[in-house]
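[09:14] KT: can someone run the structure on this one? pasting the chain below
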Amino acid sequence: MATLRPHTATPEAVPETALGAAVSSSKLQQQKDEATHIADSTENTLKGINRPLSEDEKSVKSQIESFLQQSRKATTDGDYERALNLAKKAQALVEALAK
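[09:31] RB: done, structure tokens below
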């Protein structure tokens, strides 16, 4: 019968994981700046849509606003990659809505 022992990380494995997750500070700043720019631009585009919206379009508008809110929170939390992804999702939706 085999004996079960808890798995412990070897000292060699820890640095690999840490290095894999490391992102340069310039990359983080770039993501933060891009997320902020896209979110601001998307919000301005959304505010510029003055025509009456259908129920489906109102739903899309709510989703855009939700993505923007989540993006800004992610920026505040320092999760710039997530902030950028959310801002890009909002941007894609507002571009479709503005057509």
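[09:33] KT: thanks! Confidence is low (pLDDT under 50) at residues 9-20.
[09:34] RB: yep, looked fine to me
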